[in-house]
Give the backbone structure.
Amino acid sequence: MSDVVNLFWSSGWDSTFRLLELVLMKNQAVQTYYVIDTARRSFPLEIKAMAEIKTAILHRKPEAAQLILPTQFTLLDDVPTNEQITGQYRRLLKIRHLGGQYEWLSRFADWANLDDLELCVRIREDNFVSTFLGQNVTGESNGGFDYYRLKQDVANPDISLFKYFRFPIYHVSKLEMQNISKAQGFFDIMMRTWFCHSPLKNGLPCGNCLPCDDAIKDGLANRLPLSSLVRWTLLYRPRTKMRRWRRLLLAQGTKP
Amino acid sequence: MSATIHLFWTGGWDSTFRLLDLVLIKNTAVQPYYVIDTQRRSFPLEIKAMANIKAAILDRKPKTSELLLPTNFTRLDDIPPNRRITEQYVRLSNIGHLGGQYEWLPRFADAANLHDLELCTVRGTGFAFNMLKPNVVRESDGGTDYYRLKANLANPDLALFKYFRFPVFNLSKSDIRNLAIKNGLEDIMQQTWFCHSPLKNGSPCGNCTPCNVTIQGGFAGRFPLSSLVRWLLVYKPRTSLRRWRRSFLNRGNI
């Protein structure tokens, strides 16, 4: 492993856990990257959370804060187009839903000449990770660091969209991260992370987007106010259930 | 002059004019820089304005994609401290009001090893302009004119500004408007952002210094009525009171 770990840091639960694990537990220097997507309502809150987390680390352990190199910010519109990557993404999208960020993250890594950018995705039952990466990644160990990355021979050549990344928390659940952070004494810093993609005007998580759903399902419902939990129960859950039924119905209709 | 101009771009009126002038009129390559100050409520709107302006430029003239380099973003907290610069700033701000950005901008330029960062201070009545006016000299390099610090300074602390070039120092906001109209840039200029304390609905507040400068510069049309009322009933009386207080205190010191 190189002297510095390249980490895509969104100030969310997973990537912040990795950052804290690296600098507080492993004394490892980290170069963090962030892409500013102005179309996403959460970008100001994510940048603010990053500033607060860094300050908290500085207060806790100043020498660890020195290990975090200045974050490299890039405006999404500044990431050059890449027909090959966009083509791969579009073809994968036909197989199952894949967040738009995996298109521009690959373009970004390619442009920034990164082939070891740490991406904090986790495998879960029937998520895109299990569909696209499940059979196509292999565990590696380098200089005391374990991570997963794409195999040489992937089942579908379009999966090489993910060739730029390492997946360091592939098998770690949010609750495990919570337990580790409590045991290591940095749980309070974890509580400064930001996760919701569509924050309300009052700056609270909406309870009506995928990351809010993930947080609730992963046992972190206490991070949402009651009103957002109600929104999740009355809006998000029925909507996603309806969609699932619709998909099942359509799939049945196409059966021979 | 280097082939690429280093420009501190905020998405505001003055620096956007300079950017448009360079890439659309002078066909000059520009490296924009922006410092993210998360304490400032306006930072998301400034970043959004920059993204919109960039899209508008590329829409107008797609070839400029080669001239307008990706913006270099730095978070304010990531700029290393610099005691010499901070002390210079503190001594100068004891003389008159000098915006906090004049402390971190030199620190940023010093850390980034920039000695020709363009800063779009316009002709006005502020302390920074009046202090710099007798201490700058006009220079010309490769067809681009700008002002920069003289070799002999009235106050050695003015070396705080040694990292910068001032390309629109001789222009007022209204001059910029006239030039923008003349060069057909007005529509893109309308996408700039200026207010430091935007309201929750995304409107300019009418209650901060940049809003005041914008209104006084003849751009009241860029404000909703409620913000103009706030300017008239809150900002103006407050600043008038401050001015009276200052002159009263000064009289006591005579």
Notes: Chain A touches chain B through 19 residues (CB under 8 Å).
